[in-house]
Amino acid sequence: MMLVFKLKMVMGGEFLSFNLTMLNLWIGLCRGVRGLPRDLKELGYVDKWIELKFANQDLEAVCPDLMVASEEVNHALLLEFKSGANTEPDQLRRYSRVTQNDLVVRAQISREATHSHDVTIVGKSEHSKRLCIGISDGGYQFPLLLADEDGLVLGHNQFRVRQLNSLFSLRLQIDWSRVPSMFVPIDRDSELWEVAEVVMPKVLGYMTELRPLARVGEICQDICNTWGIMDEPARNELRSKVREVLRVAVRRHFKPYLRLVISRDSVEIRNNPLDLQPDKRTAAYRRLRTAQRDLIENLRTGHGANSNGQLTLPHLE
Fold it and tell me: Given the DSSP bridges, would you call strands 266-269 and 213-215 parallel, antiparallel or unpaired?
């Protein structure tokens, strides 16, 4: 049976991608989110980095999707999420050359939390055979965790700490509907309408607060509470997505209200209909909500796209 993640976005009710589901799940496990197993939190694991690019001992780049570590069990996990059936031989080879010193000096994880580490591949159960072959062909001892409709189970190799082997050998039960989305709600693969579902309610919130301006970086921090552990390339990708949505918004549905200012990398609230009455019960606020809904729907359906199927975006002022 193919795994379908029954995780809904907070605003729009759509499914998260496999990678975003896993990213939010593991951060939630480390932070003890209600409704998720607390085992990892009780073992002292802390989320350290999202997509940190650093060099191994051969000065070759590696970039795990997520790094978590525990000083209690003296262990770090370099997590690589695979939505498909294939591994990348060169990527696995570079991972195999990561040392404790690399983690301490280049990834800034404490020596206490890096006495041992595991590069861990997390994939879908229906791809287990191909993923196992990819790991075995290189002679690697990387643990493989498989996601199925009931949770995560160890499908190949062992961890370097017995606590994780005990935790995942039978299966870590996961209620996928309880996986949060607030840690990393969007990524480089998110559609513009998915980004708009997260960004525009925040912009409307700024308008109800009667703020005159919001910087793109500030919006990103407000919608993604793991901003502080993201490496700069990952941050830049999110900034780019947010800018794209704001460009469409100021060109069409929010043209009377907003203006983008490239010199400040900001959205300026130049004509706020809530200035006189910042109340969500007013007709003015309902009009803003309608503009938000229409923007998201137009982005979802591609309405207003050019002949190449892409939305025409205006220049920043």
Answer: antiparallel
In the chain, where the domains are located? 18-178, 192-301
Q: Which residues contact 202 (CB under 8 A, 6 or more apart)?
A: 219, 222, 223
Q: Are 64 and 79 in contact (CB under 8 A)?
A: yes
Per residue in 39-64, is it b (16+ CB within 10 Å) or e — as a string?
A: bbbebbbbbbbbbbebbbeeeeebbb
Please give the average per-residue pLDDT across 77-87, as a whole number: 96
Provide the pLDDT confidence category of residue 279 given band limits of 50, 70 and 90.
confident
Task: Look at residue 275 in the predicted model and tell me its pLDDT.
Answer: 87
Domain 18-178 is found in CATH 3.40.1350: yes
